[in-house]
Write a structure and sequence with these properties.
With about 140 residues, this protein is mainly alpha-helical. Helix content is about 50%, strand content about 0%.
């Protein structure tokens, strides 16, 4: 009686949950192109000379080498992916470059009035995906 009054778990309060009632969330791998474009947008909006701070000055100040910072390592990896993606984008034709810029909301105006943006954007995504799959820096994302 005291267990029911205090709210303790009692065998009569338990019920078995069937497997179909439990929601299962399966892992969905992120699209490699979307990851590269997100890193590229951050790279385009940021200052590329970020390596001039304390990280560079650590060795000059006499501090001993400590364990690497995980956040700095991830930021460096994102910067490398952004730079590689920028190089691959610049290797596309001008209309495809403009479509990528427009898709990522970097360009505000579509400068090709005779072309359909949705068709050109699909072609540009396909071309860029093929280039990024062959790049050594971005191939592991696909």
């Amino acid at each position: 009686m005291t267990t029911a009054a205090l709210g303790f778990i009692n065998a009569s309060n338990l019920r078995r949950v069937r497997k179909v009632e439990v929601p299962v969330q399966s892992f969905v791998k992120a699209d490699g192109l979307d990851t590269c474009l997100a890193c590229w947008k951050a790279w385009m909006s940021g200052d590329q000379d970020k390596d001039l701070g304390m990280k560079t000055m650590r060795g000059l100040s006499g501090e001993e080498a400590s364990a690497p910072d995980i956040h700095e390592a991830q930021q460096d990896a994102d910067q490398r992916i952004g730079a590689a993606t920028d190089a691959m984008i610049n290797g596309l034709s001008r209309i495809h470059v403009w479509a990528i810029y427009r898709m990522c909301s970097i360009a505000s105006v579509w400068k090709f009035p005779n072309a359909d943006l949705t068709v050109v954007a699909t072609e540009a995504r396909h071309e860029l995906t093929q280039k990024l799959k062959r790049n050594i820096c971005t191939a592991t994302l696909f």
